[in-house]
Specification:
2 copies of one chain form a homodimer. Chain A is mainly α. Chain A has helices at residues 3-10, 14-22, 41-55, 60-67, 74-107, 129-145, 153-168, 177-193, 199-211, 213-220, 226-239; strands at 29-30, 37-38. The first copy, chain A, has a two-stranded antiparallel sheet. The first copy, chain A, binds a DNA duplex through residues 2-4, 13-16, 18-19, 23, 33-37, 59-61.
Chain lengths: 241, 241
DNA sequence: CTTGACTCTTACGTTACGTTATACTTTAGT
DNA sequence: ACTAAAGTATAACGTAACGTAAGAGTCAAG
């Protein structure tokens, strides 16, 4: 298929497809004689994936990073995307509530507090950030970013050990028993020393590992790709608990 | 309230508030001695409005234009926003369906067409554009943009007359009987000579008049503010039919 | 074989802020 | 009253994800 057709089917502009080619996000083969971009069905599926991520406000850079990761698994990605979309729908519903209350407020039927006026407006661009901040406590998140500043040395070492153990096996299947056992240690560690994570919010935390650079960078210090491995393992863990 | 507090309550950054001040979208009073921005409760409500529009992907320029219009009515705006949010939720639901089908497709349970892969992805940034395009037919929309090219001169004149009549009364209340009678002529004209509009899609068309520059500019040639007047009148008309 | 519709690359423009940098103000603690 | 910390101001450059326009080659229908 040529570019216009792809644009029409998918609803994005030709320029957008050019752009995605430029940044290496979606680079179709080029007809050797004309130089035209030729998109295959597989390219279309990739585009669909990209658009799903984009709809969830992932920056293109992150999308590229995630999708070109060696552990990338389309099915898992789709399941994550579904979760995130559901979150987004919740936010939308909150906004609708807020708007309805505001209408009542305007009509004088109901009196709204300032805080209520902004319920549903989560502009962190990351559906899990707020949640994670609440759980880790604001400092903790900021410190995790700066390499977990104020833990006791013993705790810090215990944590590092878990990371190192995970880093060693980061090439196996995140769904395998071995990976799941290892990630369970992480789950238990967090539950013991930080806050109680439900399996669901543990999944959410895992998603942040790939979404949020502050996490990705820190974790990947123990081995490149560890964040994405842990994220996948945590997602799987959440499904089974 | 000082800027940080507003930022915290509303969830936007301080920089964003600075920016909105810079472009004249939300300019609070400044403390005469310190030079600090002081936000009132009214400013907060304005901010809420801005954020609603922003959540609906209105560009800031448009938001400013709409909100500073002399006909601007907060209650009407809220009702429009509610409608648009509901539209957006529909889209989200479609996307969720698409994702679920894609998962089935990946698992091999179900075979998906290329078109199906992108259902729910409407990236026109304007929930009504697609709809309007379908109704007017693609050419018509593009021609409306270029001043309605290929109508018969008679029809063109009839249309212009309706515009002129509306322009003359554009300062009265869009909800008044007089305005509603005038807008009904427009409704009937469209239904006779173009496509059948349901009251709902007539509302949608009206929303485009303020959202989409191609419409705004053309319509406002008959008098500044006509587009916004018609939009409000059409919205009201839709509610009563 | 000629158009009109596509396509290519190049390159500058735009929107909505993020991110320093530097300097003044306010507030909380001693 | 004094000082550090936190908040605020302006200024200015940076960035992300395309839009838009220009100039030139390519393809498909009549």
């Amino acid at each position: 298929m040529k570019i216009k057709e792809v644009a029409t089917i998918s609803g994005v502009s030709v320029r957008t497809l050019h752009h995605y080619d430029e940044i290496g996000l979606l680079s179709p083969k080029k007809s050797s004689d004309s130089g035209y971009r030729i998109y295959t069905d597989h390219d279309l599926s990739t585009l669909q994936q990209i658009l799903f991520f984009r709809a969830l406000d992932f920056p293109l850079k992150k999308i590229k990073e995630i999708m070109s990761d060696s552990h990338y698994n389309q099915l898992e990605a789709l399941e994550m995307q579904e979760k995130l979309l559901l979150k987004q729908r919740q936010k939308l519903d909150e906004m609708l509530e807020t708007i309805q209350k505001t209408i009542q407020n305007e009509k004088g039927v109901y009196q709204m507090s300032n805080n209520e006026k902004f319920k549903g407006f989560d502009f962190s661009h990351n559906p899990y950030e707020k949640e994670a901040r609440q759980r880790w406590g604001d400092q903790k998140v900021d410190e995790a970013k700066q390499n977990a500043g104020n833990m006791t040395p013993g705790l810090q070492e215990e944590m590092n050990q878990i990371y190192r153990d995970l880093a060693e096996i980061r090439d196996i299947d995140p769904k395998s028993d071995q990976a799941q056992t290892a990630i369970q240690k992480w789950y238990e560690f967090l539950n013991q020393h930080f806050t109680t994570y439900s399996p669901e919010s543990f999944q959410g935390l895992g998603m942040m590992y790939v979404q949020d650079d502050r996490f990705t960078k820190n974790i990947d210090q123990f081995g490149e790709g560890l964040a994405s491995f842990m994220s996948a393992a945590m997602f799987e863990f959440g499904k089974n608990h």
